[in-house]
Amino acid sequence: MMDALRRDVRYTLRSLRQSPGFALVAVLALALGIGANSAVFSVVNGVLLTPPPFSEPERVVHLQGNVAQAGLKDISLSVPEYVDLATLSRAFESVAAYRGGNLTLTGRDTPQQLATVVATPSFFATLGMSPVLGRAFTEAEAVQGRERVVVLTDTAWRVHFARDAQVLGQTMQLDGEPYTVVGVLPAGVAYPAWAEMYVPFVPTETQRQDDQRGARFLSVVGRLKPGVTQDAARTDLARVALEMEEAVPSRYRKVGWSFSVTSLDEKVVGNVRGTLWLLLGAVGFVLLAACSSVANLLLARMAARGREVSIRAALGASRGRLVAQFLTESLVLSLAGGVLGMLLALWGTDALVALVGEALPRASQVRLDARPLVFTMGVSLLTGVLFGLGPALHGGSREDLSVAMREGSRGTEGHGSGRMRAGLVVGQVAVALVLLVGAGLFTKSFLALRAVDAGFTPEGVLTGKLVLPSARYPDAAHKVAFQRELLGRLQSLPGVEAVGVTNLLPLGGRSDSSFDIEGRPQAPDEVWPAVEFRAVSPGYLRTLRVTPRQGHLLEGDGTEGPDAPWQVVINKTFADLYWPQGDALGQRLKLHWDTAQWTTVVGIVDDVREWGLDTPARPAAYYPAAKVPTPFLALAVRAKSGGSPEALRTAIEAELRAVDGNLALYAVAPLTRLVDESISSRQVSALLMGLFAGTALLLAALGISGVIGYSVAQRTREMGIRMALGASRTRVLTLVLGQGLRLTALGVVLGLGLSLGLARLLDAMLYGVAAYDGWTFAGVALLLGTVAVLAAWLPARRATRVDPAIALRAE
Amino acid sequence: MMTNDTKAAASPEGAVAQEDAGAEPGKALIHLDGLTKVFETEDVETHALSNIHLNVRKGEWVAIVGPSGSGKSTLLAVLGLLDTATRGAYLLDGRSVLDLSATDRALVRNRHIGFIFQSFNLIGDLTVFENVELPLTYRGMPAAERKQRVERALEKVGMAHRARHMPGQLSGGQQQRVAVARAVAGDPLILLADEPTGNLDSKNGEAVMQLLTELHKGGATICMVTHDPAHARVATRTVSLFDGRIVQDEQRR
Amino acid sequence: MPSPLISLRNVEKSYPLAGGRAWVLRRIDLDIQPGEFVTLMGPSGAGKSTLLSILGMLDVDWTGEYLLDGQAVHAMKPKARGELSRRTIGFVFQQYHLLDNLTVAENLEVPLSYRDLKRGEREALVGDMLDRFQLVGKKDLFPSQLSGGQQQLVGIARALIANPKVLLADEPTGNLHSQQAKQIMEVFQGLNRDGTTIIQVTHSEANAAYGHRVIQLADGWLQGA
């Protein structure tokens, strides 16, 4: 038995060596199917299916506000709103509020920014995270003057303390203040995923005021009481909203005030879920294509070896022995494909995480998963076995042996298996078409986004961020002085054309406010959309080369300080919305901001896509940073034409050190990269779809080539007859190519049908291109047709070289 | 009847001497001179045909006989331009055809040669009509003329009523009659038949021989490979091959 | 009288054809004794090859009775038939039917691999056979590297390696030159002298002369039986 097996393996290896093309294609197809599937499934599994490492994470929900009339959906909450929610609601075991921030760690070689979550003490219990070392901070520490404690994530512990077990009680200089480390979280536990450490949130007296209800900067999470559903929580919060409306009618009445409840999972992965499922679907199609490719190859190969089967059977091989021999071959192939596929999966998972890691939440949770590997290998094995055995079983039946032997050298293929192979090719073409359509649509989306006029010129601009700690920059005067000093120094650097600061760079997120227009009282039931406001230095819009349309950009050089006149530049959308007559210049408006004053519109600029390239511009107002000083500064420096912005980095950092040696510039990047990153997930989708589509196309081409090649081999005699009757080579070529094109046409029709059905699902993920984009569909069909002709061409040429004398003698 | 008076002309000079110019009956339609075909394998060189000299005149019916492996089928393949020779000359209707390009060979086969095979070699996916029509379509003949020719040929072999059938629905004898119709539909210069009765029982075999006899009487030139001495005797001339050489050339009438 | 090795009674084969049946073999009664060298002759299409296929159990779609080595083939299940075939039948084909991707030695080993033999035993048998047919020098060559005569020699060696009682040969010299054909026929003659029963199909009177008895078939009927 072992002996027979050894012999079968030996023959298999040799026969595979003798047809390396077949072996290579089969193994590659299997490996691609197994590898791509396992990699993508591992990512999906890690991101979508693996729960976050909290206790009972399904009970954790995000709580956000909605002001329906203002078109504000899922917005943050203000301190009074959070307090209302915490005291009035009954559905939650605990609620917590937090905001993101950056603290600068000093006292080391260079200052470093740490991504910090400023959270209420209830944060840890609400999410279900407990420290491995020490403790979380307490209510007693969330008090003015006692809040200098910090809880580290595992990452921060590793990076800044080299996992020092004695870390508890040590002091960190953060924004110039000493903080005591009280706890460390376990590895892999962090929320939000970017958090490096946690400090207590202590609301100021001002923030607690009722008139600060519009200052919404808190993210709020809640832990549902056991047994309470999300729907029950919604009902509970609807009641809370109603009570708030009654308590503070001026703010909440008739504006459509409500709370939304979102599961943690949805919040974290909601954005990427569609893309990941899509990839999984695409990769499933690739597996389908790979399996049918292998099936096709095996069918062809086994059929071509009908003669061998007949001879072996005539020499006394039982059906069992024949089956064993061909099973060995199938298994050896599947095994080789599996091993290669496993390597591909290992590499592919890493590559995929590297490629999309930035955009992926829980990327750190992604591991190559054994289950999909086992599953896909199983599928491939089954394919191999199923299609490898059919012919052996069929060929082993003795009834047609005498016929087979007399027919001589060539094997015969039953009509059934021929039709099945043709069907498989049609399916492969259809699958390739579906994937190509997807890739085409995504690519067009991506290109359309790239072509969007962002309203500014990112080329040549370097950006970076910094945060002014409130301890050393307690008031507007300090902050303005810092800006003046820094901007002045940077402006005078050789190689710098323009420089500016803002609170938020384009594509960087939102910071909005409600507002009043002078002489235009808001009707009681009227709510204007919030205006996107930016606090910028006068040079900022020039640095970004935002085009003025009317009036002028902000005046001065930002050094005027608090005494400078109030002025504002608005964007075209804002102007068109409220002053359609074109008389916006000179009007005055006032933000709902504690220090805000009536401000004159001095200029109107082109729309800048502040929220993202795929989001239409909203009303925006650019205020002098000196008037709205914030601790969060983003720097934009334009290099002189021809100069590289990256080359300026060292000089910029040197100037910053000269101004304040305890500040760190972080997130330094050319503006072009920020633009690219804002659409990188679309690029990745397009790239991956393209990759999968390319694979499927390759498999389809191999399939067509294989089927035609095999059919040419099978029809050698027919070709011989035709040539004996005087068919020219062109005739024979046309005949064979026609066969390939017929299969392709069928596959294209089937694929177009499938694509039309599936394209609807893509609609939400597309930009600037319709799901039923005629050009994409036509282009893809044309591409497939061309590939099919090329794929059929090679075997077709072989048909023209049939030697009629030999073909006919082979009887 | 069994006269043995005329040895076939064994040299081109003979052929020229015998013939005068012009397309009258008796002209050498096929002229082979020193034709040799060698197959080579690893350590053996097999002479499938050795130094064949043969002239076939218009209207002749030549039976090519010999044991298995004697080269009969190879000779027929060379005559039909399905195969080329290693050495020697082959003039078909006065024109040298050995060094033609593949395309020209296909053209000559299509216009001037009709094949009848032992295993019929009809194309299974085409109807009887389409099978007979096939060589004519390669000629680029208009559909109306093709139809007329195909019908005439099928009538000639008594298969007109089966025009729409598929080959698989016919018996062997019927398939061979269709194959004969296909061979003659294009009015070829010569008919080449490779064991035309080999796959048939005696009754159907006789019927096919009868058909060939009628074609011969109608003026067709036929070269036929056969195993069967009885069938060879129906022909007007018998060429015997052994180990690739002509060992006997016997002419009747 | 010794019992015949092969005994056919009323064996018939036909297949349906539009409007009736086409007969390939009709009412074949035939006895072949152990040690005979029998030649089946007849025109093409007479049914010779079909009869040989039935004798070799390659063709099982027929009616009648067939006793081989005392066993009723017509009543056997496929598995038992396969077993009997492995033990008693060796086949030689006109087209040799060697496996192209196996060497000469491996081709010889194929029939043995379908029996329960130890590797040593198999190698010994293959070695014997290579010696006997003077193929030792060619044992590692592939069929395509051999002449037709040599290939057929390997075909015969392969047919004999499992020590069958009957050797069935279908036009074994059909693809060979007269010189090679003669050599093959002499091999058959020698085998027959050593006790192997041989049944051959041939067109050649010369080949038939090597046998003891000629059985004529025509249109599916045994002639002069």
Automatic annotation (TrEMBL), chain C:
GO molecular function, one term: ATP hydrolysis activity
SMART domains: AAA
InterPro entries recorded: AAA+_ATPase, ABC_transporter-like_ATP-bd, ABC_transporter-like_CS, ABC_transpr_LolD-like, MacB-like_ATP-bd, P-loop_NTPase
Keyword hit for Cytoplasm: no
DNA damage recorded as keyword: no
Chain ranges of the ABC transporter domain: 6-225
Keywords: ATP-binding, Nucleotide-binding, Transport
Transmembrane segments: none
Annotated Pfam families: ABC_tran
GO CC term (a single one): plasma membrane
Record-linked CDD domains: ABC_MJ0796_LolCDE_FtsE (cd03255)
Homology family: Belongs to the ABC transporter superfamily. Macrolide exporter (TC 3.A.1.122) family.
Record-given protein name: ABC transporter, ATP-binding protein
Source organism: Myxococcus xanthus (strain DK1622)
Higher taxonomy: Bacteria, Pseudomonadati, Myxococcota, Myxococcia, Myxococcales
